[in-house]
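Here is one chain, start to finish.
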Amino acid sequence: MALLDAAVIFVASLLVGTVAILAGVRLIVDADAGVSNALFTALVGAIVWAVSSALVDRFVLFDWLPILGVVLMLVAWIGVLNWRYPGGWGTAAAIGFVAWVVAVAIVYAFTLVDVLAPEALGIPGA
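Its structure:
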Protein backbone atom coordinates (compact mmCIF):
# COMPACT_ATOMS: atom_id res chain seq x y z
CA MET A 1 0.00 0.00 0.00
CA ALA A 2 2.90 2.37 0.73
CA LEU A 3 4.15 2.03 -2.85
CA LEU A 4 0.69 2.87 -4.20
CA ASP A 5 0.48 5.88 -1.88
CA ALA A 6 3.89 7.07 -3.04
CA ALA A 7 2.87 6.67 -6.69
CA VAL A 8 -0.35 8.62 -6.17
CA ILE A 9 1.50 11.42 -4.36
CA PHE A 10 4.12 11.52 -7.12
CA VAL A 11 1.50 11.78 -9.88
CA ALA A 12 -0.53 14.38 -7.97
CA SER A 13 2.62 16.42 -7.27
CA LEU A 14 3.69 16.22 -10.89
CA LEU A 15 0.27 17.35 -12.11
CA VAL A 16 0.09 20.22 -9.63
CA GLY A 17 3.64 21.26 -10.52
CA THR A 18 2.87 21.11 -14.23
CA VAL A 19 -0.23 23.28 -13.92
CA ALA A 20 1.59 25.73 -11.63
CA ILE A 21 4.61 26.08 -13.93
CA LEU A 22 2.34 26.41 -16.94
CA ALA A 23 0.43 29.23 -15.21
CA GLY A 24 3.68 30.95 -14.21
CA VAL A 25 5.11 30.81 -17.71
CA ARG A 26 1.91 32.01 -19.34
CA LEU A 27 1.61 34.90 -16.89
CA ILE A 28 5.26 35.99 -16.77
CA VAL A 29 6.62 35.14 -20.21
CA ASP A 30 3.24 35.67 -21.90
CA ALA A 31 3.73 32.74 -24.18
CA ASP A 32 2.01 29.45 -24.80
CA ALA A 33 4.34 27.21 -22.81
CA GLY A 34 2.81 23.91 -23.81
CA VAL A 35 1.72 21.26 -21.35
CA SER A 36 4.42 18.78 -22.35
CA ASN A 37 7.14 21.40 -21.83
CA ALA A 38 5.73 22.33 -18.40
CA LEU A 39 5.44 18.62 -17.50
CA PHE A 40 9.06 18.00 -18.45
CA THR A 41 10.16 21.10 -16.54
CA ALA A 42 8.21 20.00 -13.45
CA LEU A 43 9.78 16.54 -13.63
CA VAL A 44 13.34 17.82 -14.10
CA GLY A 45 12.79 20.46 -11.43
CA ALA A 46 11.57 17.83 -8.97
CA ILE A 47 14.60 15.66 -9.69
CA VAL A 48 17.00 18.61 -9.26
CA TRP A 49 15.27 19.60 -6.00
CA ALA A 50 15.44 16.03 -4.67
CA VAL A 51 19.10 15.54 -5.64
CA SER A 52 20.20 18.89 -4.25
CA SER A 53 18.22 18.23 -1.08
CA ALA A 54 19.84 14.83 -0.69
CA LEU A 55 23.30 16.32 -1.23
CA VAL A 56 22.73 19.03 1.33
CA ASP A 57 21.36 16.49 3.83
CA ARG A 58 24.01 13.88 3.04
CA PHE A 59 27.03 16.07 3.35
CA VAL A 60 25.57 18.44 5.96
CA LEU A 61 27.44 21.17 4.16
CA PHE A 62 25.49 23.98 5.67
CA ASP A 63 24.81 22.80 9.20
CA TRP A 64 26.09 26.07 10.59
CA LEU A 65 23.53 28.03 8.54
CA PRO A 66 20.57 25.76 7.65
CA ILE A 67 18.79 28.32 5.50
CA LEU A 68 21.74 28.37 3.07
CA GLY A 69 21.07 24.77 2.01
CA VAL A 70 17.43 25.57 1.26
CA VAL A 71 18.42 28.69 -0.65
CA LEU A 72 20.89 26.71 -2.77
CA MET A 73 18.23 24.09 -3.52
CA LEU A 74 15.82 26.85 -4.53
CA VAL A 75 18.46 28.43 -6.79
CA ALA A 76 18.98 25.02 -8.43
CA TRP A 77 15.21 24.70 -9.05
CA ILE A 78 15.02 28.24 -10.45
CA GLY A 79 18.01 27.33 -12.60
CA VAL A 80 15.90 24.63 -14.24
CA LEU A 81 13.21 27.22 -15.00
CA ASN A 82 15.92 29.53 -16.37
CA TRP A 83 17.22 26.71 -18.58
CA ARG A 84 13.78 25.80 -19.90
CA TYR A 85 12.27 29.25 -20.52
CA PRO A 86 13.52 32.54 -21.99
CA GLY A 87 14.11 35.71 -20.03
CA GLY A 88 16.96 35.09 -17.60
CA TRP A 89 17.18 34.51 -13.87
CA GLY A 90 14.75 37.25 -12.88
CA THR A 91 12.08 35.87 -15.17
CA ALA A 92 12.75 32.35 -13.90
CA ALA A 93 12.40 33.52 -10.29
CA ALA A 94 9.12 35.25 -11.14
CA ILE A 95 7.84 32.10 -12.86
CA GLY A 96 8.85 30.11 -9.77
CA PHE A 97 7.03 32.52 -7.45
CA VAL A 98 3.83 32.40 -9.52
CA ALA A 99 4.13 28.61 -9.70
CA TRP A 100 4.43 28.45 -5.93
CA VAL A 101 1.34 30.64 -5.40
CA VAL A 102 -0.69 28.65 -7.93
CA ALA A 103 0.39 25.31 -6.45
CA VAL A 104 -0.51 26.42 -2.93
CA ALA A 105 -3.92 27.59 -4.17
CA ILE A 106 -4.57 24.31 -6.01
CA VAL A 107 -3.60 22.14 -3.07
CA TYR A 108 -5.54 24.32 -0.64
CA ALA A 109 -8.66 24.02 -2.80
CA PHE A 110 -8.27 20.25 -3.02
CA THR A 111 -7.64 19.88 0.72
CA LEU A 112 -10.89 21.73 1.40
CA VAL A 113 -12.79 18.97 -0.42
CA ASP A 114 -10.53 16.24 1.02
CA VAL A 115 -9.00 15.20 -2.32
CA LEU A 116 -5.30 15.92 -1.72
CA ALA A 117 -3.02 16.12 1.26
CA PRO A 118 -1.17 19.41 1.77
CA GLU A 119 2.14 17.66 1.00
CA ALA A 120 1.25 17.20 -2.68
CA LEU A 121 2.44 20.58 -3.91
CA GLY A 122 4.68 19.61 -6.80
CA ILE A 123 6.85 22.66 -6.27
CA PRO A 124 9.63 23.04 -3.78
CA GLY A 125 9.64 24.61 -0.39
CA ALA A 126 5.99 24.81 0.47
